[in-house]
Design goal:
heterodimer; A: 210 residues; mainly alpha; Rna Polymerase Sigma Factor, Chain: A; Arc Repressor Mutant, subunit A; 2 domains; B: mainly alpha; 0% strand
């Protein structure tokens, strides 16, 4: 009996997801026919993911909003190129990642500045790491600020690869799909990105202790 | 200082502090309004582009006619000018009355 219930629930879930998919397809078809109001449910449904991704690359909330808005404008303009073979979400995330990359390329700042202006909590966290690495918690706000500083100094390519590969824990194939780069290119860029990050971390240590 | 460990720690910190997925109030309305205004603007742009093309075509036709007129001046044998033609037409009925017996 529980098995039968599970099967029914699974079938219902499948039917619901199919209905949802159909609705999404219908919405896209309506937008393509010129009904721009049908775009609103799509924006409402997927904006949280777009915002979460944009916040990985932009610090200021105004910049995050600009990125999200640009993603949706591009999505509207390029909706005709969505063939419906893959889920809309995948297509949208590709667009989001590429827009974030364009943003990084257009806003390369603070890349050459030194780490001499670390705040007190950041300096304390580093001190704690030097004396007893295990006592420096990665959940601390200072650690979050420090990693933000390090990421800001990375080149756009390196930042994108480190974020996708190391922080979001995505596979090389997935990164290739999201960025449009080939798999070997992602591997090469990942190798360079790690080296670049190591150089920056070492510079931070030098600026702090030398 | 162990730099590799520091790097790993920093990456772990970034992983532990995933950014929020909240969106500003009525963001979807803003996007839709922006898109609607863009669509309206695009329609207007279409009209402007069409009218501009029509104006350019008219100008080209006028220029061609001007050039044709300039390069091939009218070679008519009729030497009467417009005022004479006008007078003849206007007084045609009077002339006919004079000529009739």
């Amino acid at each position: 009996m529980p098995g039968r219930l599970l099967t029914l629930a699974a079938e219902k879930g499948l039917a619901d997801s199919r209905a949802m998919e159909r609705t999404e397809t219908e919405l896209i078809a309506a937008v393509l026919k010129g009904d721009s109001a049908s775009f609103e449910p799509l924006v409402l449904k997927y904006s949280p993911r777009v915002f979460a991704t944009a916040r990985r690359y932009a610090r200021r909330e105004s910049e995050v909003e600009d990125i999200a808005q640009e993603v949706w404008l591009k999505a509207f303009d390029k909706l005709g190129s969505f063939r419906g073979e893959a889920p809309f979400e995948h297509w949208l995330m590709r667009l989001t990642v590429r827009t974030c990359y364009d943003f990084l390329r257009g806003h390369q700042r603070n890349r050459e500045s030194s780490f001499s202006d670390l705040s007190e909590p950041e300096s304390d966290w580093l001190e704690r790491f030097v004396t007893a690495p295990e006592s420096a918690s990665e959940n601390a706000d200072a650690a979050k600020m420090l990693v933000g500083r390090v990421l800001e100094r990375l080149s756009p390519q390196a930042r994108l690869v480190i974020t996708l590969l190391e922080i979001e824990d995505r596979s090389v194939k997935e990164i290739a799909r999201l960025t449009g780069w080939s798999v070997p290119l992602v591997k090469v860029r990942a190798f360079r990105a790690r080296a670049e990050m190591r150089r920056i971390v070492s510079k931070m240590a030098k600026d702090k202790y030398l | 200082m162990n730099l590799v460990e520091l790097q790993n720690k920093l990456i772990a910190a970034a992983r532990a502090n995933a950014p929020g997925d909240h969106m500003p109030y009525a963001f979807e309305k803003r996007v839709t309004a922006l898109l609607s205004s863009r669509v309206a603007l695009q329609n207007l742009e279409g009209w402007v582009r069409g009218l501009w093309r029509a104006a350019m075509s008219c100008m080209a036709v006028a220029l061609l006619c001007g050039a044709w007129e300039f390069l091939n001046p009218a070679t008519t044998n009729n030497t009467a000018d417009l005022s004479q033609n006008f007078e003849t037409t206007l007084l045609a009925s009077v002339d006919q009355a004079d000529q009739s017996p």
